[in-house]
Amino acid sequence: MTHIFGRSTRGQLPTAVAGDGCYLIDASGKRYLDGSGGAAVSCLGHSNARVRAALHEQLDQVAFAHTGFFTSDPAERLADRLTAAAPEGIDRVYLVSGGSEAVEAAIKLARQYFMEIGQPQRHRVIARRQSYHGNTLGALATGGNEWRRAQFAPLLVETSHISPCYEYRGREEGETIDAYGLRVANELETEIERLGAESVMAFVAEPVVGATSGAVPAVKGYLKRIREICDKHGILLILDEVMCGMGRTGYLFACQEDGISPDMITIAKGLGAGYQPIGALLVQGKIYDAIAAGSGFFQHGHTYMGHAMAAAAANAVLSEIEENDLLARVRTQGEKLQAALEAEFGQHPHVGDIRGRGLFRGVEFVADRDTKDPFDPARKLNAKIKKNAFDAGLVCYPMGGTIDGVRGDHVLLAPPFVIEDAQIDELVSKLSGAVEKAL
Ligand code: PLP
């Protein structure tokens, strides 16, 4: 009998007892290749020696000192390192405990910023239908994932959702990629004009969409146009890199590949790499300065923000990424993973799209490749793939998002940055077996 309130209880799931690089090991000794880092979390794999040592060392000094009274070396050091590596103009960091907290903080900070600069009428958020920004009420309202929102809809603040940038499903026949990117980006301007620009405070988007549809990157040029539109109308651009940030795409921040600098960035997951729960909101100096010159205080906070142990883990994660040149490795291993997926599934009659950036890849399954019709949800293809893969010793992250009424079956792959070539082959071969068994 267990008292954990969750999706499952002891007896229904194996008990994880150890980690070994890209593998997790259960109580029976069975090894699982962690093909998705849980939910794109374990970017260094399991049982990393440097992170373990950093945690021991910090624990011997001080584990926690409340940020209302103290700062700590690891928190200060982490903030310095993150801002040094961040896109231009980002020079302040707000440390929290996870992704939803980072998104909540971003939304509240946007609101307070406009209050402080004398634009109190700005309160609306625009986001995209194909998105997930977290499960707390503000973050849930921002996200466009219909399944996650449905039963809580009456509790959610009204948010506008425009089209995603989802080339596989959205680009029309004969339309160039550039024209497609511009068309969907311009929907933001249409929505701003419909709402009245003076009432809009922020646009929120994931540069590479994760949990809703399996590693869907914005096409080249899309985010540049989004940046222009936000600037033109005085609206803050908040990029949610909780899943795609921290090197997952081969850049420390995914938007660096798109060549833009947002007003705020949220990160989490890979920041603590699963060793500690930690998230961060990174902010342009102008936002901090407005508040510093005004009320002097961001009216927000959580007990565990700036936690010394969490920051110590994140510093060790950053050191691993820097000293082992893991961003370059993510790019090369990511290309190999894409090539291996294409070799295995490229001609598959039920695989419509294989996409992503770096070690953040998605495979989309369809009933019919020509029409792109999805499978009947009653078939529960996702759940079957997940189970078959798990039985075979592979952790992958399958999901079935609904975009504009079209339900898709996808598998998200986000293996540790240290994945070896042979493990890429193992991943693809186990996934292939799981898919064939499920179809
Ligand atoms: N934002 C994005 C893009 C996410 O993928 C997630 C989680 O999957 C969140 C926010 C929420 O993060 P957390 O589960 O740490 O609260």
UniProtKB/TrEMBL annotation:
Cofactor(s) the protein needs: pyridoxal 5'-phosphate
Gene3D superfamilies, alphabetized: Aspartate Aminotransferase, domain 1, Type I PLP-dependent aspartate aminotransferase-like (Major domain)
Keyword annotations: Aminotransferase, Pyridoxal phosphate, Transferase
Keyword RNA-binding on entry: no
Entry's Gene Ontology molecular function annotations: transaminase activity
PROSITE patterns: AA_TRANSFER_CLASS_3
Family: Belongs to the class-III pyridoxal-phosphate-dependent aminotransferase family.
Entry protein name: Aspartate aminotransferase family protein
Species in which this protein is naturally found: Marivivens donghaensis
